[in-house]
Amino acid sequence: MKMHILSGGRLRMKKKVYHAQAQSDEMIDLPVSCYLLKHPQGNVLFDTGCHPSIQSDAQSRWGNMAKAMVPIGAPDENVIDDLAKLNMTPLDIDVVVNSHFHTDHCGCNAFFKKATVICHAKELENAQKEDAATMGFLRMDWDHPMPIETIQGEKDIFGDGKIVLLPMPGHTPGMTTALVNLDQDGSFLLASDAVALQHNLETRSNPRNTWDQEASFSSLDEITRIFHSGSTIIFGHDIDQWRGLRKGVMSYGQ
Ligand SMILES: [Zn+2]
After folding, report:
1. Alpha-carbon distance 180 to 126, whole Å?
2. For position 211, what pLDDT does the model report?
3. Residue 163 CA, ligand 1 centroid: distance in Å
4. Are strands 163-167 and 176-182 parallel, antiparallel or unpaired?
5. Which residues surround ligand 1, an ion (CB under 5 A)?
6. Burial class, 202, CB count within 10 angstroms (exposed 0-12 / middle 13-18 / buried 19+)
7. Facing residues of 34 across strands?
């Protein structure tokens, strides 16, 4: 199985959201990552990133959120353009996993018309609440005709230990990570916003945009255990780590 790390956009936010010690005028650049997992039984995409339209007009889709989370990527920094570089279209994807339903993680779901979407039951429930939009959940991102399969706990997608979904609540109620075991290169935990930056893991600190502090600390502790067992943790939005990763046509595994 091969894993390709694809771009889902690039955002700029106040650094204070992630680093409690930062000055209030300091900003931080955040890559948004998606992961193509080419399993022999089907192509899985973990997260779909930001909708391409936000690079030219974020306000129309995101409303006021566009002020706190400013897109700074090039027009082709999105998962659709990155798949095209691999000679793939969204219709080649069989399964979309959404780590959670924030708009920078499911913004391109609409394009994956042949896929089954997997998310945690609590995430779907939360995104359906009346005030969900005020918390970053936009119905236009996730509410489509494709089937949504919900999980309640761990799920080994193909039953062979290659892609195991591990719920890690805290950032949102249904936040889910994926432990990916590659034949070569070892195992990777796709942490998404369960750990946004390496800084958050190292200092055991939660970003400001955390739904449940205690749940998030428990998830951080679980991820620390996974790290000590030898897995590489891929953080949700860490620009320093992002620079060193193989991306696009380059891949992990074989
Ligand atoms: Zn999020």
Report:
1. 26
2. 94
3. 21
4. antiparallel
5. 102, 193
6. exposed
7. 6
What pLDDT is attached to residue 183? 82
- Between CA 108 and CA 102 the distance in angstroms is 12
CA 102 / ligand 1 centre spacing (Å): 5
**pTM of full prediction above 0.85:** yes
Distance, CA of 40 to CA of 250 (rounded, Å):
18
Domains of the chain: 2-242 (3.60.15.10)
**Residue 22, both tokens:** 């930062």
Coil/strand/helix, residue 165: strand
CA 105 to ligand 1 center in whole angstroms: 7
190: CA distance to ligand 1 center in Å? Answer: 14
CA–centroid distance, 9 to ligand 1, in Å, is 14
Tell how far the Cα of 254 is from the centroid of ligand 1, in angstroms: 30
pLDDT under 50 in the chain at which residues? none
